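Example 4.3 (complexes with small molecules)
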Amino acid sequence: MRLVLLGPPGSGKGTQATRLKEYLQVPHISTGDLLRAEVAAGSPLGLQAKEVMARGELVSDAILLGMLEDRFSRDDTRAGFILDGYPRNLAQADALGKLLEKLGQKFDSAVQLEVPTELLVERIAGRAAAEGRADDNPESVRKRLQVYTDQTAPVIEYYRQHGELTVVDGVGSLDEVFSRIVEAIAPEKVVG
Ligand code: ADP
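Answer. The structure with adenosine-5'-diphosphate bound is encoded below.
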């Protein structure tokens, strides 16, 4: 199964992707995690990305595509993947389509987690207290939500127009949201 998870910061993409990975037995590729690993390692790429991420802005499309090509060159992605945090703008959506075409891989679905903005702000504040991410400060959060509205929301329309969009209600317990996703993408896999 080849999936993209779409949703604003705080919509629960990362948490649901971790569960889906176990369930579908395919790797979870989080571009945020890949970038944070580069920052932690102090690599040249990490040094370039660090400030941009802390401000809540997008790291360059070229860096992201390079990272993604690298990740997709590993064998474990042949069985499928759950992509979380990419694409974040139309150019990235286009680049992903071309990459999969080049690799001869068929895309299954973009799953959009729908969550009202008030709830997002609340959830991110909770996560900031628990995890202490450098970009979970109020200013960066505002910026990330703005970037989402301006640049990432059009990606939803892109997948809708391609007939590849699955919309899932992201409000509820982790279990509830997980069940909704599974039912929407792989009803034959629902047990009980
Ligand atoms: P969240 O969705 O909670 O904001 P992520 O972990 O997905 O967090 O991303 C954190 C930051 O990493 C983003 O704000 C951005 O700076 C950078 N980033 C992640 N994915 C991308 C991407 N596809 N394109 C550009 N920048 C990205």
